[in-house]
């Protein structure tokens, strides 16, 4: 039996809705989601499986300038993600509009013969008039890309964008799937747990601490009826540690409780989660530590 099979990179500016789109397509929690930019730090694979196709979606960090070793790694990982893919999905936040950076990207991939599908995200936040006006902005580019207005939150047109990218995939024998049919991501459960903890920390800390935190899961024991997890939230400064801890430990307890509930939904088991706070100044420029977090700096 022949199936459609290939890799598709999802790129775009920070907070354009890339991770939300990945999760909506896969119908599983593949990438963490936060209203803060640069939430995604790694290239994360979301594997879409049906009887007639396997599409490996690569969720990438947001396009941004680099200021430290972590930023540099994230931007290099985007370039790696768009190498040898069958197509690129460019996420464009409809509430922000189309920018020169995005039109330049469309031109660049078009000249490289890489098909571009623009995901016009967050249409649930605007009225129909705004959607039509934004689509009109793409008129000069229609010979270089296809545009799909969608809402990941409402799951509107998510299946449509899958159908659009599917036509750019080669036909192969079913035996040539890259991953087993029951896999929905290439990331380990330990990695997903660390990302969930980081997601909850970003949510509850709001604007008090920018992206100066990381999460390291250093103990992961899976038993028949429970998973015991020990993790560190790593921050840059002692002042950040006090904020993460909160009054009488209230903030850390809130983060831990929310993370534990979410992790239990993913693993379908009881979870015993212990979270500690560690101060590691300038950790974003410490290549050895970044590698310990799973960023594989030396491979980029």
| CATH fold description of the largest domain | Rossmann fold
Share of helix, binned:
25-40%
Give the mean pLDDT.
83
CATH homologous superfamily identity of the largest domain = P-loop containing nucleotide triphosphate hydrolases
Query: Which class of the largest domain in CATH terms?
Result: Alpha Beta
Number of domains: 2
Specify the structural class. Answer: alpha/beta
Distance between the termini: 36 Å
Oligomer: single chain
Overall body shape: globular
Spans of 5+ residues with little confidence (pLDDT < 50)?
34-41, 63-82
- What CATH architecture label of the largest domain applies? 3-Layer(aba) Sandwich
What portion of residues belong to β-strands?
Answer: 25-35%
Number of strands: 10
Question: Count of helical segments?
Answer: 9
Largest sheet: 7 strands, mixed
Order of helices and strands: EHEEHEHEHEHEHEEHHEH
The Cα radius of gyration reads: 20 Å
Primary descriptors:
globular; alpha/beta; 9 helices; 7-stranded mixed beta sheet; Rossmann fold; 300 residues; 3-stranded mixed beta sheet
Structure description:
- There is one protein chain.
- With 300 residues, the protein is of the alpha/beta class.
- It has 2 domains: 2-176, 3-Layer(aba) Sandwich (Rossmann fold), CATH 3.40.50.300; 189-299, K homology (KH) domain (GMP Synthetase, Chain A, domain 3).
- It has helices at residues 18-26, 69-81, 100-111, 128-137, 158-166, 189-205, 238-245, 250-267, 287-292, and strands spanning 2-12, 44-50, 53-59, 87-93, 116-121, 146-149, 171-173, 213-222, 226-235, 270-279.
- Helix 6 (189-205) runs antiparallel to helix 8.
- The radius of gyration is 20 Å and the shape is globular.
- The two termini are 36 Å apart.
């Amino acid at each position: 039996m022949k199936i459609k099979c290939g890799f598709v990179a999802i790129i775009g500016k920070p907070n354009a809705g890339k991770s939300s789109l990945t999760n909506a397509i896969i119908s599983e929690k593949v990438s963490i989601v936060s209203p803060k930019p640069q939430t995604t730090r790694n290239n994360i694979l979301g594997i879409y499986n049906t009887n007639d196709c396997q599409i490996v979606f690569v969720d990438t960090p947001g396009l941004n300038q680099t200021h430290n070793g972590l930023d540099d790694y994230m931007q290099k990982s985007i370039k790696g993600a768009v190498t040898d893919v069958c197509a690129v999905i460019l996420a464009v936040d409809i509430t922000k509009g189309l920018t020169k950076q995005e039109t330049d990207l469309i031109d660049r991939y078009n000249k490289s013969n890489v098909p571009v599908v623009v995901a016009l995200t967050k249409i649930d936040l605007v009225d129909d008039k705004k959607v039509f006006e934004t689509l009109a902005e793409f008129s000069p580019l229609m010979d270089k890309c296809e545009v799909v207005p969608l809402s990941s939150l409402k799951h509107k047109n998510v299946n449509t964008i899958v159908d659009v990218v599917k036509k750019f995939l080669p036909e192969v024998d079913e035996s040539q799937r890259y991953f087993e049919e029951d896999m929905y991501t290439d990331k380990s459960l330990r990695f997903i747990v660390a990302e969930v903890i980081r997601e909850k920390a970003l949510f509850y800390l709001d604007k008090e601490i920018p992206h100066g935190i990381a999460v390291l899961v250093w103990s992961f024991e899976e038993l028949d009826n429970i998973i015991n997890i020990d993790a560190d939230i790593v921050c840059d400064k002692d002042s950040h540690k006090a904020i993460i801890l909160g009054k009488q430990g209230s903030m850390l307890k809130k983060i831990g409780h929310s993370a534990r509930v979410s992790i239990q939904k993913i693993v379908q088991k009881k979870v015993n989660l212990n979270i500690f706070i560690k101060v590691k100044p300038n950790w974003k420029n410490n290549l050895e530590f970044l590698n310990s977090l799973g960023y594989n700096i030396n491979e980029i």
